């Protein structure tokens, strides 16, 4: 099959959801156009932003970093070492190697050094690994962004991730989660940095193809702690639908994000329109929509323990850490006693 | 495994979504309790109602008829012969046989005699078979109900049907369809009869088990025109989720129906609360919720051709029929000319 864009080279990837097929060079153009459109649509980034890119060593986050650098954004990579034997070492290596090629060094946070490696934390407290991991990661995203004076944190969530999450939220009608699900989450007070998902329009297949064709070396193994994650079931269910009706995922997610969707409004009835992003440097673009994202309930206050912004007395990270510390002490006593 | 209700007989069916397993006798009790709860919750039926049960010859509708008769409702069965070679004959036979056992004779409408058998109609006009079938069936539900002075039309849609439809409506964010999806659709003016789905709380597996254990003889083959129906893909996707997380379907549908769901409100912002059903004869039951269902846009007017209630000049059934008639004439001319 020939590339449907240049009509010369052989197609390397077929995309039924776009009724198209591309050679590598044309696919890169297509892919970047999709990311650019995703950024433009909700004004996720401004060219002046210092962007902290959260990289796990997997394809999505390394591709995100790659694309943002190619687009000329000022970026640094943040790698959080979860302390998972084998997996963490391998993914850390991929991040460092990739960064080195680009003449960069990632910022590295080691959860073992911070006293809260995920596997031990999961053994200590009754909470799903992925939930613990999410809480801890969010904490360090904000902390590192604040310390490094970054304007925004970018994560590599793709369309498959976002629609799987949307489906899960819809099946359980989690109104609060639904009202907060958006590629653009505004900053809230001091220390809760703006968070964006520039890959929200591209599928997992497209991200994987971009990484592969670009020769980006990433960890292909899934995190060993996420094998039973419910999100994988939602992904599989949506893959069935996408396969039978190509384009279903983007229709589903874009429809959800559209202004007319009452699930995108706050329960009170008012449309939750956050301050739009700073907008592109090239001035207001026609057709650019305001970054409609939910305002957070109130201004966060400093955590009584660590000073990080929180809506409760002590932030959830500090509460987690304290639980793990206590349980560790108890275990040590049990072992010696 | 023993029945988890009587703890004596061997379990004949295991229901992970209810953390249970039942022997046949206890399963009948469980099943009827589920249907009764589904009826009570939105006041679908009153004991004084004359109920027109739409039976296709498949398991769901025959089980519905069976359960409603056992519950003491006054029912008649309506069978619409779609004119599909082989399949229609076989399903008609099942309906007649079942009715005979109960000392009844179904009301039969033959689409071939009415000039609009589904296969020919589908060949004549560019419209999906299932869409044509739906329009034609709705027309006869109303017409037969009006002629026979029935209070309500009941169809055999089960939880799997309703959640598949819900998922499809959500993926495409079909707001109008979403606002009309409910086990209770109120009557609207003269001739648009109340429509209810008493099996909305029971799964396809449960309905099939009830039919099998009761010895109801039904057509097991699917309608040959529906093999590519998109609803089957949504069903399969939800089956994946249900299998991994039992109970997901009922959580999904009940959450959608709940009063707090803004998708159950009319686009205007007002909650669309229809006149509740007549309520059970035993007086108002505690915990009984009003039948929250969307009001239709305005009062229907008589169709210019057939007099049936419609929101347009000519009803969609008459328009379909006219299209088929014209195309048939053209074809006859082509064949002779």
- Beginning-to-end CA distance, first to last residue of chain A: 71 Å
Oligomeric status of the shown chains? homodimer
Q: What does the overall shape of chain A look like?
A: globular
Cα radius of gyration of chain A in angstroms: 21 Å
Q: Provide the spatial order of strands within the biggest beta sheet of chain A.
A: 5-4-3-6-8-7
Q: Provide the residue-averaged pLDDT of chain A.
A: 89
> Largest sheet of chain A at a glance?
6 strands, mixed
Helix content of chain A: 40-55%
The count of strands of chain A amounts to 10
Most extensive chain-chain interface: A-B, 28 and 28 residues
Tell me the structural class of chain A: alpha/beta
Helical stretch tally of chain A: 12
Uncertain parts of chain A: 267-291
Summarize the helix and strand pattern of chain A as letters: EEHEHEHEHHHEHHEEHHHEEH
| Percent of residues in beta strands of chain A | 5-15%
Topology:
Two copies of one chain form a homodimer.
Chain A: E1 13-15, E2 20-22, H1 24-41, E3 50-54, H2 59-70, E4 74-81, H3 87-101, E5 107-110, H4 111-114, H5 118-124, H6 129-147, E6 152-154, H7 159-171, H8 175-180, E7 184-185, E8 194-196, H9 204-214, H10 230-244, H11 248-257, E9 301-302, E10 309-310, H12 316-336
Parallel strand pairs in A: 3-4, 3-6, 4-5, 6-8
Antiparallel strand pairs in A: 1-2, 7-8, 9-10
Helix pairs in contact in A: 1-9, 2-9, 7-10, 7-11
Task: Give a written overview of the molecule.
In chain A, 45% of the residues lie in helices and 10% in strands. Chain A has 337 residues and is an alpha/beta fold. Chain A has a six-stranded mixed β-sheet with strand order 5-4-3-6-8-7, sandwiched between helices. In chain A, strand 1 and strand 2 form a beta hairpin. About 7% of the residues of chain A have low confidence. The interface between A and B is medium-sized, with 28 and 28 residues.
